[in-house]
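Hi V.,

You were right to ask for the full record rather than a summary. Here it is.
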Amino acid sequence: MKAAIVPEAGRTPVYGDVPEPAVGPGEQLVHVSAAAVSHVVKSRASGTHYSSSGRFPFVVGVDGVGRLENGRRVYFVAPGGSMAERAAVPSAYCLPLPDELDDVTAAAIANPGMSSWAAYVERAKLKAGETVLVNGAAGSSGRLAVQIARHLGARKVIATARNVDALKEVAALGADMTVPLVEDQAALEASLKKEFAQGIDVVIDYLWGKSAERLLVAAAKAGPEAVPIRFVQIGSMSGSDIMLSSAVLRSSAITLMGSGIGSIPMERLVACVGALLEAAVPAGFKIAAKPVPLADVERAWAEDDSARRTVFTLEPDDFRSSRPEI
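Predicted structure:
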């Protein structure tokens, strides 16, 4: 069967042939219709993600949308790779899709939306009426994090990003306040300190690096009047390491934690995706997506960016799905 294959670390996936998947006990065969590129997919393909196996070649992709042998449409998580005509998937990792949610949108929204949904629900335990700051709100994941915070009952949502124009779009998605990460260090710290002094309950961080340093320092300097903060680290688009004085944590009520594969059991991550997908249409979550035939994987892989989610599509003869224009 055809699949997108990573031949070795650092190589762009290629369109080629792989053996049919062997379906074991407790698994189902999924006829794949759509699978999206995400940061974790790219990191695994390069061999740099913390969950990478280090074994090559392999079928790229971690999740997708397809149909079971009985024709039922599902979202699935595929340990053996999702960007192939067919995938063997544990039954527990197959979720029925709402009829009103199309394949491309479901594939596009699942991974980036899950990242913040799980962080809010499983790690931060977000409560209605709290204030949330999304650090790195310009990309697909950050934009969804703003929308999901509002859906889950956040009273106020603050968004930061380096792209000033993108922040204007984020404001239209529900951010009450935007903070561009382009000011000089002192000015940025003063701006953030003011917000923390007024009370920020949860920080969702997609950037790490220097902006996370400034956030943590500003939170600590906000003083005893600031509320306790749950700082949830999700992504590292600005760098994998930070320099943090121990005094920052000793002098403040900051709880620093991560959210991702390993910090949350897989079955609960899958449950978070299920809740997200059920809410997507009623809540009106928006995500920009670009459907591309899987056969074009080499060209489209290089063109992918965080502004629009690239969704690779397949149309097996017996399991055709509609692909609306997005």
